[in-house]
């Protein structure tokens, strides 16, 4: 009896402790000298320093890290905030990736301006939901305005146009979304629904689905055409939309990684002849791997000829439009029916800010939907024209960045990034042990380490010999890239791309993205020097390569 | 000549000023006494106070607010951070919605625990991209662990199960996403692709699309069955997936807003007879409008019988599983093939945290995709099984909340919310001037203001009279709800629902969600009192209603 009583009272005690700690976390702020308070201060005062100090440089193998995240049981009892934060710092932050480091030039995530941190806190504190005005109020017109600005950046319509459409309930100049994938998916969804629209008895693909739509329109299939450098999200979109991945047709590229326009025209003709309807031609404005831009003007003409949707995936390159120096690279983008731009890439906004703009403000009617409690007809709720439902107020961060950085500021950032890429390309070209594989058009380039004897050999080798050498070089490139990443000083990524001078065969290359404004020329030189050192550490591939060269020269 | 020189030098001066301000924003932190520094401090010390002080209570009409967001031109020159922040405070924050106010009980967004603010700042500062390990490292096992915990919450498999699958490269226990809509879409995408899988010559719907899939499987169509209370995202998903909105078949509900199980069984039989393949039966666990839960166990049996995917949309109600007191309400959820849960609803995480879990860790193989530079086969990159590409590290916030609040803490929060709803329902029932339309099962309820004379009249009126009265009551409800919102002290939402006692006709009701832990009983009583006052201010509908009653009693 006594034990039962004791047990009960201990349960009651625990419950009341939980109750108290619950009340605290909702009502009592973290004190400035609490663990979280101190972290906030450190981040506010010196973000790079904070990250540099807390993120462990030398890489721990993933399976080691997984041991810290192995328990599937739900925590039964509350943990003190400060204890948990120490745990996060030791186990999570320490083993995260220093994406804003100036020497991490392998991905599209870069440094953020300082004002973004407190503004993000404000965004979270306000916790608006952009799906409807009732939970976002002024954030709705703000998001519409940002979409208007981005639309104007692409299409440059006049004041009257924006006056008329920017805040119109039944129109939308675009859609904010979590990222480029959803942006591309939204664009192709709009394209599909507009093409297979209601017609006579047929109520449209949105209502009746693709099976009935193709039967009604008597097509034997559909196709989306994009260069072989197109982003994988297009195949994913085709899968989701019920069109099928195989309907995404990869058109070959020229030696500058741009779509072969004749091949595109031929393919359109062939498909049309076979009663396969071209749904959309997709131009790439900044390929993910090489940063090259398709000939958009000529692609637009073909799209016009085949009366299909012309989408431009400018998730990476779109921000280039902010530079008067370089926006000519994107000529023709204003002819696109829709354009994807990721603000979380070259617009220096944190992860989670993609968008798509539509030339015709009425085209989103094809994906309009309503419900009883929100998105009522005639309301200006943004959620009636977006793929996502509840969404955070990321538009505020884009809005603030556009004002604080301004067009001129973005121009400088973009111009400097491209200049830096040209500088790096020149260094690679001048260096005896490196081969520049793709030259920069925007701030991306690819290259690899090739010992000079091997370079000489590649010039004169037979096709078979080249394949043997490239296969060894692939291994060496992978070795260097992994070692460099693991040693934690710097990071370039790697990818495989078809290279014209090797008969279109794929080779493994280092891929570099130079968008971080804090990356200096010294850092770039150090990265090359480190790669040379690492190559020499390779006990296997480098000797094998040199043996190949020796054998061939016999 | 002189003017040209002057102009040039002023351009150069401007450029160098822009250059300098750019350098500042990337390298110099906001000082503690800067505008942003002060805002941060205020938010850290007293978030509710900060919001209460900066958000203007009395509503400004939307068309007035739009005037502040009317310019479509891109800002050409940089603005000082502090100037811009003042602008944001005055024009945006002032006119945003106080979603965390304890008296705003009309939406599903509520107060956040204090630790969330600094942690969100940490998340943004780290700026990880969860699409791949290279840009997220420890965040990837962390997200997999959170999915494991949520999977265990739903399915309760044993340690061995989670040991085997949680960190397996080619499996996934679920997917994080921006919200419930993408979660539902992902679940139905998996369901579609698994049903219409590769078979003989046919390479599967993912590759060949729906048109060929239905031809191959010789179905005349597909269907998704859900109660008439199902969320609008299901129709949207059916549209996106190419199945068509009309294929979402709304099954009637009983007087408790639960699916009529016989009607569901009959419809399945009818569809099957007509060669329409039932793709999925969707159970609702917490309807958006009334918070009721479908009979999941019985639905699972029917899904089993028709060999179709059983999805449960528990975007709202899923967190109830954390309460041992109430999880029995969700009995049968463990039989679902997939379950949607929004962490940004009853798990008190900020906007942007939805997820879906899958019973079978292999089922996501149906939506697997790869690319050259990331998501290589065999890698553990999360992006190979998600609809979205680049994604932020929201999983950290769910992880921290699960540890700091813990299961017991969530149980208390959920139990208290439901208790509060029962208290409010009782108050409404006891009050002579209100009609409880739907009683709470979770913490949602709906009701309306009905003067007692009118209530008496409704008991005895003819069908025609009831319709006239309800139509007037609808106008009165709308009037009260709008006035209450505009006056800014409190907020309930409104929706239209079919009401059993009015022959299933739709009536307009107040909708209340009682998830904010800071909402007190006093606040609830004040809301009722305010609504009574507002009703009396109605110069039109209340007199008309009373006139109707007088007329009828003659």
Outline:
The structure is a homodimer of 554-residue chains. With 554 residues, chain A is an alpha/beta fold. Helices cover 46% and strands 12% of the residues of chain A.
What fold name stands as the CATH topology of the largest domain in chain A?
Answer: Aspartate Aminotransferase, domain 2
**Main sheet properties of chain A:** 7 strands, mixed
Report low-confidence residues of chain A grouped into runs of 5 or more: 1-5
The overall strand count of chain A is 11
Total number of domains of chain A: 4
Which CATH architecture of the largest domain in chain A would you pick? 3-Layer(aba) Sandwich
Distance between the termini of chain A: 95 Å
Q: Which pair of chains has the greatest number of interface residues, and how are they split between the two chains? A: A-B, 181 and 180 residues
So how many helices of chain A?
20
Structural class of chain A: alpha/beta
What spatial form of chain A do the alpha-carbon principal axes imply?
globular
The oligomeric state is: homodimer
How much is the average pLDDT of chain A?
94
Q: Regarding CATH, which class of the largest domain in chain A?
A: Alpha Beta
What brief labels describe this structure?
globular; 554 residues; 46% helix; Aspartate Aminotransferase, domain 2; seven-stranded mixed sheet; alpha/beta; disordered N terminus; 20 helices; homodimer; 4 domains
